[in-house]
Amino acid sequence: MEPFRRVSGPAAHLDRSDVDTDQIIPKQFLKRIERTGFGEFLFHDWRDEDFYTLHDPEYRGAEILITGHNFGCGSSREHAPWALEDHGFRVIVAPSFADIFHTNCTKIGLLPVVLPEAQVRHLRNHAQDSPGAEVVVDLEELVVVAPDGEVFAFEVERTVRERLLNGWDDISITLNEEELIRRYEATRERHGPSTLGFAS
User: Fold this and answer.
1) For a Cys-Cys bond, which of 34, 86, 125, 144 suits 39, CB 3.0-4.6 Å?
2) Can you tell me the distance from the alpha carbon of 174 to that of 14, in angstroms, rounded to the nearest whole number?
């Protein structure tokens, strides 16, 4: 996955709380075996609703989504963060996230930012009233900068931040210990074939 450092640009807004994963990507679109191709079905069942603005021209291409409490609740399907990422989002800002959804986001390089409700509302109001206004999310400095210059600090678990800054997924983290793994595989007592491709 790509390293995440800083995203700046317009933010889209979805003024809804308790958005579950079936609303993010409905079940009928979960038949693909790849991780891509889900973005076109993001929030499919909401596209004709008055509150849905993501298809408005001023929000197309936004990499930041501002939304409500408990985002990503419901089933633990990984397809929900895949769909958000495939649509083009790199950051989701909300007062809270469902735990499994939060973890699934960080595993693919999608940054969930938790801010107090008043700060989220401040950002959402800017996104709604001034479409196209720039929001900055800086993972190195751990701040969100609103269009009016207000700066909001956020926290990310140290190991998660390290993963995102370096672009490490689970496989990358394992490969970082490749030399230790090779030494262990070369010296351990074994009763079966070697996984290293050479005889012990």
Assistant:
1) 86
2) 37
